[in-house]
Amino acid sequence: MGDRTPYSVACLHLWEFPKPTVAAVHGYCLGGGTYFALLNDIVVASDDAIFQMPLPQGAGLPGAER
Q: How many CA atoms are closer than 13 Å to the CA of 59, on its beta-carbon side?
């Protein structure tokens, strides 16, 4: 798969995990943390959870910040 950064390896491990995964989000979930939250099968967010992807505003596409 070419160039694999430690971040992409961690995402692939979570994506390919054979059992259902659950993310609990409390507070801010920004940038790369949003990817980790979205890769799970179930996301439970508290009332004060804030999701934001700041990079696409500059790069145009999520994941294109490289």
A: 11
